[in-house]
Amino acid sequence: MSFLNAAPATDIPATVALLLAAYREGSLRPEQVLARLWSRWQACPLEQDPAWITRADAAFLQQQLDALAGQSPESLPLYGVPFAVKDNIDVAGLPTTAACPAFAYKPEASAEVVRRLMAAGAIVVGKTNLDQFATGLVGMRSPYGAPSSTFSDAHVSGGSSSGSAVVVARSEVSFALGTDTAGSGRVPAGFNNLVGLKPTPGLVPTHGVLPACRSLDCVSVFALTASDAARILQVTEGPMAGQASFNAFKPQLPRLPHALRVGVPVEPEFFGDADYAQAFEQAKSQWAHLREPDGTPWPVTLVPVDMRGFYDVARLLYEGPWVAERHAAISSFMAENADEMNPVVRRIIEGASQHDAVSAFKGQYRLKELAAQQATVWDAIDVLMVPTAPTMPTKASVEADPIGRNAQLGTYTNFVNLLGLAALALPAGFTQGSLPFGITLIAPGGSDAALLDLGACWQASCLDDGLSLGHGLAMASDAELALPGCKALSAEPVMALAVVGAHLSGMPLHWQLTERRARLLMRTHTAPRYQLYALPGTVPPKPGLARLADDAPPEAGHAIELEVYAVPQSAIGSFLAMIPPPLGLGSVELADGSWVKGFICEPCGIAGAQDISHFGGWRAYMAHVKAQAAQTEASRSAA
């Protein structure tokens, strides 16, 4: 059905959790959601809305809607969920501008993170505004306009991911992608009463993202709840096969200790903003109300932390040689088009001329020295809580001092990626002047799942205070705040399990893993000693994986794409009970020579099955099948 002919829904849930629940109940359809968005857009032309750079046209939206035919929330984890993409992340069919019209190009392929989300059923609706070339924390360095905070026209939205934060806060989309090198995915979250997930560097692939500082860049997520952000991370995390990464993928820590030690700055800096200072003290007191998902108290001890070492690291980002990475990303463009750039952005990036190879090495030496010193902080604390930003400046104050006011906003953000840490920005109430205030939880790399678990508990602890979501949205409910699977992550033992077919992310049986709170550990390949077969008569279609005999010639084997999940041991039994013959559980050798448990196929199941090993994996084979079906249908229609 065309969404243009659908009656726009009048009451659409804002969160991913409730939107999916409405789809499952049958009370809402994706075309009604798109019809509502389209109606809103018609009432507010693009040129009047600085949050968007490009809105998808009707044909682009309808094509994605048509791709959902035959699918459901049971088969696709983000079925029919609309999302926006920061305009330095490629989406095939939409231009990428990086907020610089002279730089614009139309990519042939989507960024890997966008591809994964669309494969999971999410619908891209447009590209959002940003500080040009993702250089800034204020949201005012774009020729497409300067979005305001959704709470005050006089105050900045935060940047560089300005538009992404604004469209989530006003519930045009359920979530949005940003990027975060120096705080661009956290500061706008704080200024718009949102959750801002800044993953461990390397956890989410940046292939197809225009670099700012390529060795530090992260794709971030704006959402209304930590549980929604967890849903997005489950789909997007994991390395991209065959693509180099500056940062190694790190295993996930499932949960922080029950007796939690929360570090807080000894002398936090607020640059004279008394309202933000008071709001931070109120946030510190909120830890006394922290509860486990089952309602039992989660004991917390606040531990004073000297922040001077972190501030020393932060200064390296713009005062050190890393600014040269920004120049490296667009050096060819700048050589011929510098006059087309925002003057403040141009001034910052031209600072690269002050650095040479010697200073680059000296900067690395200094960072390693500081990183070693700061590593000892985690011996005393489990998580660090800081203000997301020390103050919320007005647009007028930024115009008067564009460099200085912007620099202030990076006080608690600039050091995080340089140290390879994970971070989660969370709403933490409002100031006496009714401006949003946020905190950020920071922990060692690989603790993203643990931070999201803690963030969900933090938001639940704020329910008694009337926790609001975004700007002017309904109060949160327990159902919205619960992590995917509606059960708390725990420290119970897990088993690594490899899947190669219908249980892959975005595939029809993936829900059997998410329902059991399984978390993605890695995307990789088997050792080159396997063959993959398409098993006949299976519904949904399934493959069979078989290892070559020891005496078989090596050239007969293939490396087969797979995903490895951490599955709670308590859920393994129910999972195995759902595996039909001739499939079973065995051991699979990975590309690095390690072994994990995984799906294997009995020899009887392979007899007469089609060998599809040359496709390299089930995804590629299914894409081939779909393309063949489309070609057959086209030929039939032509006849």
Can you give the helix content as a percent range? Answer: 25-40%
Distance between the termini: 25 Å
The averaged pLDDT comes out at: 91
Percent of residues in β-strands: 15-25%
User: What characterizes the major β-sheet?
Assistant: 11 strands, mixed
Residue stretches low in confidence (pLDDT < 50, at least 5 long) are 485-491
Number of helical regions: 21
User: Which structural category fits the helices and strands?
Assistant: alpha+beta
**How would you describe the shape?**
globular
Radius of gyration (Å): 24 Å
How do the strands of the widest beta sheet line up side by side?
1-3-2-6-8-7-12-13-11-9-10
> How many β-strands, per DSSP?
21
Which descriptors would you attach to this protein?
32% helix; eleven-stranded mixed β-sheet; alpha+beta; globular; 21 helices; five-stranded mixed β-sheet; 21 strands; 639 residues
In short:
The chain has 639 residues and is of the alpha+beta class.
Structure commentary:
- The protein is an alpha+beta fold and 639 residues long.
- The chain is 32% helix and 19% strand.
- The protein is built from 21 helices and 21 strands.
- Strands 1-3-2-6-8-7-12-13-11-9-10 form an eleven-stranded mixed beta sheet, with helices on both faces. It has a five-stranded mixed beta sheet with strand order 15-18-14-20-19.
- Helix 7 runs antiparallel to helix 16 (448-461) and helix 9 (308-319) packs antiparallel against helix 12 (357-375).
- The radius of gyration is 24 Å and the shape is globular.
- It starts with 15 loop residues before the first helix and ends with a helix.
